[in-house]
Amino acid sequence: MDNNKYKYKNYFKEDGRSVQKIENNKYTLKKLENSTCVICNKENNKQSSYCKHCGNNLSEVEENNLIKNEIKDSKSLKHILKNINFKKASITSLCSILILFIVALIFKLLMGLQIREIGMLINPIHIVMGLNLGHIDISSSGMLGSGGISAHLGILVFLIAPILALTISNLLFMKKENTDAKSTLLNSIGVGLTYGLMLFVLSIFTKIKTSPFDMMQYQMSFEVSYRSLNMFFNGFIIAFLCTYLIGFKKSYEKDNIHLGIMKKAISTVFLGYVVVFLILTAITLSDKSYLYEFGMYGYTKDISTSLVLTQLASYMWGFANFIPLTISSYTISIFNLLGSDLFLNTKLIFIAMVVLSSLIILVVGCNLKRKYKDDKKNVVLIFSLYYALFMGIVALFSSILIGGNISSIQISNYQGAISLGLPLISTIIRSFLYSYIVAGIGYKLYVFE
User: Fold this and answer.
1) Could you tell me if 308 and 412 lie in one domain?
2) For residue 439, which of 356, 324, 377, 360 has the smallest C-alpha distance?
3) Residue 19 structural domain
4) Same domain, 105 and 171
């Protein structure tokens, strides 16, 4: 639609929307106290709105301070917190934690049957923290020395449990509260805050100090704890996104352009991940050799190939956004791919992922033009900001980092590190630039009638 032909009109004839977007609610007419016309200087009745001699308006336009104050108040933190239903949010979060606790009890029982020593060392709260991808610290001390290990096991498949728990709880307690776009957003924040706070409190009680049975004679002790702030941050993100996506309705996009574009950014990241996972699964069914070159073939000996693929899919989607992928000491990016020692077939897989991501984001850019063609805001920029944010969350959650040293019976000090994943800062910057350029091209290329 060509806005130039509506330059001198107030409304679109197709749907009646305002062309000029005049914000009349910010202003009001105030009757002048003096009934003398300022144009012809003749006297009028006090009740007159217009001069009976020359027709001049006897009112003045002033800014509506009441509405101005309401807008200011609506942006304050106090106003936001006041409009969150914390009672229902707390019930939803508590129910989710209880569901996870039941899952953890079952998991602990199964673990105890397989590995009795480990099953007795950990408690269900540790498992709940692990399912929310918490960062754990383990320190040891004894006659043979001391040391510590810091580990973040960002195995994405673990998120299935908290996602299902939050989904069930939201459908039971929060669905009726999300009546519009504003309430959905605010209640999502409420569930995120209460869920994160509960994990924060529980993480304080995960700190334990114990001595393994076979090491009592060496007078060794281990101290295990989860990082509380990390648990709050993880809990807020997981609960907020689950609640928001469950309560979001398509009609809300008309209320706030940011809500619709944010959902589109989340959907794009999720779609890319799923498509990459399906392609990797199809390739793996015919040939697993590429996993060896990725440095992940060894992991399939201890855990299922499907679990490895769910993790690898997130890394490959990041690589497809021009983000360097790190596997142990090996880092590969689009810039060193051709000069690497990888086989040609493996290089083609990487290149195919880049082409795939370009097509997906190009289509997103076209969709943004079709959907928001009459909006004056830079929708591509808004999309890229949200897209980069959620890609950063993927990088943060999917990283597997194990480092440090810990005393052992066989050797005085064991040193080693495992690093798998995408760098956080680089992921945010590169995914923003990549999506802004590619989506921008799609936006420019799309032609509508």
Assistant:
1) yes
2) 360
3) 3-75
4) yes
pLDDT tens digit sequence for 244-262 = 889 887 777 777 788 889 9
Q: Do 179 and 263 meet the contact criterion of CB atoms below 8 Å apart?
A: no
- Per the rule left: phi > 0, alpha: psi between -120 and 50, beta: everything else, 413 is beta
- DSSP-derived 3-state class of residue 287: coil
As a whole number of angstroms, the distance between CA 229 and CA 135 comes to: 10
Interatomic CA distance for residues 434 and 253, integer angstroms: 25
d(CA 449, CA 446): 10
CA 154/CA 420 separation, integer angstroms: 9
Q: Of the ranges 117-126, 369-378, 385-394, 427-436, which one carries the lowest mean pLDDT score?
A: 117-126
> DSSP of 76-133, one letter per residue?
SHHHHHHTS-HHHHHHHHHHHHHHHHHHHHHHHHHHHHH-HHHHHH--HHHHHHHHTT
DSSP state of 174: I
pLDDT 10s digits, 224-239: 788 999 999 999 999 9
pTM of the model: 0.75
Which one-letter amino acid corresponds to residue 70?
A: E
Place of tokens 């393994």: 212
Q: Is the pLDDT of residue 277 over 90?
A: yes
Other CB atoms within 10 A of residue 71 CB: 11
Bridge partner list, 145: 142
Residue 183 has what pLDDT?
A: 83
CA–centroid distance for 439 within its chain: 19
Q: At which of 254, 273, 301 does a domain end?
A: 254
In whole angstroms, what is the distance from residue 379 CA to residue 371 CA?
A: 10
Q: How far apart are CA 327 and CA 419, in angstroms?
A: 6
Tokens of 117: 């020593």
Of 27, 53, 75, the last residue of a domain is 75
